[in-house]
Write a structure and sequence with these properties.
Chain lengths: 335, 241
């Protein structure tokens, strides 16, 4: 059973092919990072235009790499939310054309679920219950996958996603977009304790997160130093800022795991590529005796294989989409 | 020869199956922002009611705009993947050409318009020619008063069609303009497919990946940029592409 997955919710045009739910056949990503870099963030109309340019070539490459023809595909999965509406529409419209052409089922995939479920391509069948942190430029959510495979959202960012906060601070200190990898690199030479940046909402009893206070604090400190004629050590700034973000995410996720009595943790999404986030989670989970599952980086960032994997799960459970499948830019993580 | 026509570049979503010189089936919905939801059910309706299987379709014709970006990409993405999957030839047509084609029996010059939002419209001028219309000007984007001045400069009465007429009726109601009503306000997939059919016959077709939207306007990257540019790192330039 072959499922082709299409992902166009943000700034990656991505297509993957998955066989029998658990086997990765191909995973092709056409990144738009260079198009958005001059603007320091993803520009929705630029993203939608690029998705249409890249859609067919990316589908073609994914089929070639999987060694299959379109007529071999048993179902078409596509991200229908959450994400940028104009970007999502390109993928969904493209998926519908494919489903019509070969009269195969259409599967509408929730992007956040897919970030978690993609782990099944590397570690095999997931054995919920588990807790997951889905963290990227577009989202920061703490979710639980219950024993029956359904998802519950425990908390999410109330302002910026973690990746957005990385981008904004990177831009402020003159680093290119996307900021996450740049801050990560710069922070390796810095002292994470050099600045005492705030850890917002750390002890408020919720699983929600906030990045805007931290961002403001970093900018305020840099401006104050500039006004005082001091030259800040940017590596120290990057390390301290990154440590504050990592702290909040590790603490809140692992508290959720403890409260829910769960001993498996999935770390997913583009920001899961951050080396400090990975190493802190690894250390904490080990000392707690928890199993940590982190997909490899090509499966952490937005990709088509995750959509195919999640779609294959939907197909197996009998949840196919109707012809009028719509996009939902604010899709919640229900069911 | 059976052609599937898709037109989603205006507020309307329109689908037609056209065979030789007659419309076998058509379906339209004039409700804004419904392209993504309605297009596939509309195609399926036309196929089912006409009793036609997808393997009988010979080619796909699609509207390339100009128009509303989000809507027109829905039609083009569906046309591209469907045609690529079935290995069909495709023809992309300008929506203004289709609008003018819809009033091809007029003896007067024709001005086709499409509401471009934000105080502007897209337009082009045409004359009827044997079997259709001939475009006489470039595709233009501009304000209604600029178009009104161009109409006045024509020296004879002009038939103005398209949803630009509905959006800017007052500004376009100049002495030399005869303003058409809602019956020719939107490019229709049946007319689009009919206009495209001779090109399929003559094999003047393109591959699906060559179907490119006619945007006429750059991506609006500067919206919200002033706020974002407050931070250091400099205000970036708009891309040239
Ligand atoms: Zn994502």
């Amino acid at each position: 059973m072959l499922v082709l997955g299409i992902e166009t919710s943000c700034d990656e045009t991505a297509v993957g092919v998955v066989e029998d739910r658990l086997t990765l056949r191909s995973n092709v990503i056409a990144s738009q990072t260079e198009l958005h870099a001059p603007f320091g963030g993803v520009v929705p109309e630029v993203a939608a235009r690029a998705h249409l340019d890249q859609l067919l070539p990316t589908i073609d490459t994914a089929l070639v790499q999987a060694g299959v023809h379109l007529s071999d595909i048993d179902a078409i999965a596509v991200t229908s939310g959450p994400g940028l509406v104009g970007a999502l529409l390109v993928g969904v419209a493209g998926a519908k054309g494919l489903a019509l052409a070969h009269d195969v089922p259409l599967l509408g995939v929730n992007h956040l679920r897919a970030h978690v479920e993609v782990a099944q391509l590397e570690v095999g069948e997931l054995e919920p219950p588990l807790v997951a942190l889905v963290v990227s430029g577009g989202h920061t959510s703490i979710v639980v996958m219950d024993e029956d495979g359904s998802f519950r959202q425990l908390g999410s960012t109330i302002d910026d996603a973690a990746g957005e906060a990385f981008d904004k601070i990177a831009r402020f200190i003159g680093l290119p977009f996307p900021g996450g990898p740049e801050i990560d690199k710069l922070a390796r030479d810095g002292d994470p304790k050099a600045f005492a940046f705030p850890r917002a909402m750390l002890h408020d009893g919720t699983y929600d997160l906030s990045m805007s206070g931290l961002k403001t604090a970093v900018i305020r400190d840099l401006r104050r130093m500039e006004a005082a004629g001091e030259e800040p050590d940017l590596a120290d700034v990057a390390a301290s800022f990154q440590e504050a973000i990592v702290d909040v995410q590790v603490v809140k996720t692992l508290r959720a795991a403890a409260d829910e009595g769960l001993d498996q943790v999935v770390l997913a999404g583009g920001v899961a590529a951050n080396s400090r986030l990975r190493s802190r989670f690894a250390a904490e989970c080990e000392s707690n005796g928890q199993r940590l599952i982190v997909p490899s980086i090509p499966l952490c960032t937005d990709n088509g294989a995750m959509v195919a994997a999640s779609g294959a799960n939907l197909l197996a459970a009998g949840f196919t989409a109707t012809d009028d499948l719509d996009v939902d830019p604010n899709m919640a993580l229900a069911g | 020869m059976l052609i599937l026509g898709l037109e989603t570049s205006t507020a309307r979503t329109s689908v037609a199956l056209v065979e030789q010189d007659h419309v076998l089936a058509s379906a339209s919905l004039s409700k804004p922002r419904m392209h993504g939801r309605y297009l596939l059910p509309a195609i399926r309706f036309c196929l089912d009611q006409a009793g036609v299987d997808v393997d009988r379709i010979h080619g796909v014709a699609v509207g390339l705009g100009p128009g509303l970006f989000t809507g027109l990409r829905v039609g083009i993405a569906t046309a591209q993947t469907f045609a690529a999957a079935r290995q069909l030839p495709t023809v992309g047509l300008c929506g203004l050409d289709v609008l003018a084609f819809q009033v091809r029996y007029s003896r007067r010059p024709i001005c086709a318009t499409i509401d471009a939002r934000r105080g502007e419209l897209f337009w082009a001028f045409y004359r009827s020619s044997p079997g259709g219309v001939q475009r006489e000007t470039d595709l233009t984007v501009g304000r209604a008063d600029e178009l009104a001045a161009e109409i006045d400069a024509q020296g004879e009465e002009v038939l103005v069609v398209g949803d630009g007429v509905l959006a800017y009726h007052e500004q376009l109601d100049v002495p030399r303009a005869e303003l058409a009503g809602p019956d020719v306000a939107w490019p229709d997939a049946a007319d689009l497919a009919e206009l495209a059919l001779p090109r399929f016959v003559r094999e003047e077709t393109v591959r699906p990946e060559q179907l490119l939207p006619i945007y006429l306007r750059q991506a609006d990257v500067l919206i919200g940029w002033e706020q974002r540019g407050r931070l250091r790192g400099g205000v970036p330039q708009a891309p040239t592409a």
